[in-house]
Amino acid sequence: GGAYLLALDAAGNAVWGSPIEPPAAPEGASEEASSMLLGVERAPDGRLFMLIQSWWGDDLGASVVLRTLDGSGTQLGEVDLGIEVNNPVDPMGAVLGVSDLAVAQNGDLLLGGPFRGILNIGGKEVEGPLEYHRDGYLARITSTGELRWVQSFGAPEEVESVRHVGQPRHVGFTSAGIPFVAGDYQGGLSIG
């Protein structure tokens, strides 16, 4: 299995399409990559940004890459965003990493998603309030993958039997360019 990107005209006819190949496996990978297309967004200048998450088993972790394509589907570049989570697939079956993305007028990208324990994005470590519970994050990066900032949010203190807090579902920008995140939580919410 795999992912694809297909462009259609106004009548629903295919204009172009291609399979989404997973990023190259890290050195020492014994398994074929499992990949998932996390999202595609169009920039105001027509470029397409695709987020692809791949993982190679528990010991090699996961990676998230940002691919840039032109409006005709030709790949312009790819950068590993350096997003690492302790366990890319948690025991409850959720893939941790990026759950949504949006593109700003200047081409910056807004990413949001769940993580557990420590999140490393763009070389910056973010520690969630609870080591064994899921927390959420919101990050802004440039179109070349440089981290501008990252914020985490989750439960302010341990909540017994709650394993799902601070779950981002949607990120975006207001018409004034202000970033926002919307989602759900259980137990309590702490911003910052």
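Second entry:
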Amino acid sequence: PTLIDQTPFDRIYAITRDAGQTAIVPLREEKKVESMLIQAGIPNSWLLQRKSLSFLLIVEGRDDTKVWRKFLERENVDFNKVQIASSGEPQGGQNKAIEIGKFLKRARIPIPFKIIIDSDNKLEEKEKSLKKEGFQSFEYHILTQKEIESYLINSKVIANVLGKPINQVETAISTTSGQGKERLRSIFLKLYF
């Protein structure tokens, strides 16, 4: 189908062709909307229109989704109001995260969002790219660390989780090079986890 946008949402229509018949169908019911958008080739992860959704956090991949969900759970965030979307890729979904944001803007879906991407040690380059794509500074955040996993490298937390002496964990952290998930993985291996 072809989507015709006459915002607000209850005035969006799809032109369909079924059994040789062409019809203009209003997309008022949520189930019908999802079905039509899937037929239009829009991925499931982009089907974000919810009546009560008030904010969308767009992250790079599955691991980022898990980490952010835990952070937000600890802050008692209402997941009926705030959703986390990602490319679904295990890693490196920056371009897909940006595509989700671009889709929301193009489709004029009235959901405030923020794209959070890893810096991958290219902070300035990524910021220029996001601005060039038309994003405002309030619509994105680039982590200052290489990856989200860098923020999980905390000696007290790791010692508590693994049941290891803090001095042993601090030694493992100080003698492990690298960044992000590779460094976190190496620290755990040094601690026999």
